[in-house]
Amino acid sequence: MRLDKYMTAAGVLTRRECAAAVKQGRITVDGLPAPRADIHVSPAQHVCLDGTEVVYRENTYLMMHKPDGIVSATDAPGERTVLDLLPEQLRRLHLFPCGRLDKSTTGLILLMTDGVLSHRLLAPRRHVEKVYRFTVKFPLSDEDVGQLENGIRIDADSHAEGFVTAPCRVIPEADRTHGAIVLTEGKYHQIKRMMEAVHNQITTLQRISFCGISLDPALKPGEWRYLTEEEEAILRAAAQ
């Protein structure tokens, strides 16, 4: 792979910026100054920019703690998106959310460049589990929990068609206004509409797990990190 393409794929420099950095002696390959921007390098070599190693990734996978009020999309005119929370070098990689969270829903969202993997994880037949912590306005009764777990009819509205939800798990806490819900589907405003179907109302909602990967408690709202190799392996195994 050409050095300038390597730097572009790593989200560090554009090809033009790479050529200028080479002329300035800012790029080294295995400890030696790069002579040209079109030399060929491999991921096994040590490529550094200003003394900092540039790690090449065939695909990039990130975990983010999405804050309230941020849109999980690549572009939303007039709104701040999850991509706006990333540094410039990562925004160059054309990352996109794997699935979406409502604007008011916080918590775990995955960003990646791997379209094939994302498509497989989101396919309904995969039954990938998503776990959310919720708060509702009124305590949930045992009858409410039973209706939610067994599948409940969601009426159509101006934004989406009606449907019957798939079975899920609802784990209320002692006060019955807090708890967790485990879904294997993710339709438009689904949890909000499920609670409305039992005459209740979501007041807070946070995704805490996706496909067995939990939100890193060290991440504050708006912060992100790369997925570990183990977490990437979990996603690939689920997509098989």
Structural descriptors:
alpha+beta, Structural Genomics Hypothetical 15.5 Kd Protein In mrcA-pckA Intergenic Region, Chain A, Alpha-Beta Plaits, 3 domains, four-stranded antiparallel sheet, 7 helices
CATH class of the largest domain: Alpha Beta
Distance between the termini: 29 Å
Q: Please count the helical segments.
A: 7
**Secondary-structure-derived class:** alpha+beta
Principal-axes geometry comes out as: elongated
Sheet having the most strands = 9 strands, mixed
DSSP, total strands = 15
* CATH superfamily (homologous) name of the largest domain: Pseudouridine synthase I, catalytic domain, N-terminal subdomain
Number of domains: 3
Task: State the oligomer.
Answer: single chain
Second CATH tier, the architecture of the largest domain: 2-Layer Sandwich
Describe, in plain words, how this protein is organized in 3D.
With 240 residues, the chain is α+β, with helices and mostly antiparallel strands. The chain has three domains: 51 residues, Structural Genomics Hypothetical 15.5 Kd Protein In mrcA-pckA Intergenic Region, Chain A, CATH 3.10.290.10; 90 residues, Alpha-Beta Plaits (2-Layer Sandwich); 82 residues, 2-Layer Sandwich (Alpha-Beta Plaits), CATH 3.30.70.1560. It has seven helices and 15 strands. Strand 1 and strand 2 form a beta hairpin. The longest helix has 10 residues. It starts with a helix and ends with a helix.
